[in-house]
Amino acid sequence: MTDPIADYLTRLRNAIKARHRVVEIPSSKIKKEITRVLHEKGFIQSYKFDNSDGQGIIKIALKYNPVTKLASMIHLERVSKPGLRKYVKADELPRVLNGLGIAVISTSRGLMTDKEAREQNIGGEVICYIY
């Protein structure tokens, strides 16, 4: 697999379109960190890491609005790709939907949202946009 993060986002996108409650994704360090950020920002209900086999699996419980039945994540977009990396300085960090969405940024201090990176005045690689 050439782009495991794109595969992660595609699995989430497909599970949301199929209205699944739980999605299982092969685990890696960066996928665990993206999952942690999504949970902190309220885009997913809960998650669990299962390391019973060699690689491990991330089980993610998706979050839906109980009234409208819409998912909390409408759009997941991969920005920095293996063929074309996208790096930004601290003063050039993107704003997703005027602050309603998040941009996941890989910095020297770990994965964080665009807002957290702006507060700490550090730039990095823009992994994806989520809203």
TrEMBL record:
<comment type="subunit">
    <text>Part of the 30S ribosomal subunit. Contacts proteins S5 and S12.</text>
</comment>
<keyword id="KW-0699">rRNA-binding</keyword>
<comment type="function">
    <text>One of the primary rRNA binding proteins, it binds directly to 16S rRNA central domain where it helps coordinate assembly of the platform of the 30S subunit.</text>
</comment>
<dbReference type="Pfam" id="PF00410">
    <property type="entry name" value="Ribosomal_S8"/>
</dbReference>
<dbReference type="GO" id="GO:0003735">
    <property type="term" value="F:structural constituent of ribosome"/>
</dbReference>
<dbReference type="GO" id="GO:0006412">
    <property type="term" value="P:translation"/>
</dbReference>
<protein>
    <recommendedName>
        <fullName>Small ribosomal subunit protein uS8</fullName>
    </recommendedName>
</protein>
<keyword id="KW-0689">Ribosomal protein</keyword>
<keyword id="KW-0694">RNA-binding</keyword>
<keyword id="KW-0687">Ribonucleoprotein</keyword>
<comment type="similarity">
    <text>Belongs to the universal ribosomal protein uS8 family.</text>
</comment>
<dbReference type="GO" id="GO:0005737">
    <property type="term" value="C:cytoplasm"/>
</dbReference>
<dbReference type="InterPro" id="IPR047863">
    <property type="entry name" value="Ribosomal_uS8_CS"/>
</dbReference>
<dbReference type="GO" id="GO:1990904">
    <property type="term" value="C:ribonucleoprotein complex"/>
</dbReference>
<dbReference type="InterPro" id="IPR035987">
    <property type="entry name" value="Ribosomal_uS8_sf"/>
</dbReference>
<dbReference type="InterPro" id="IPR000630">
    <property type="entry name" value="Ribosomal_uS8"/>
</dbReference>
<dbReference type="GO" id="GO:0019843">
    <property type="term" value="F:rRNA binding"/>
</dbReference>
<dbReference type="GO" id="GO:0005840">
    <property type="term" value="C:ribosome"/>
</dbReference>
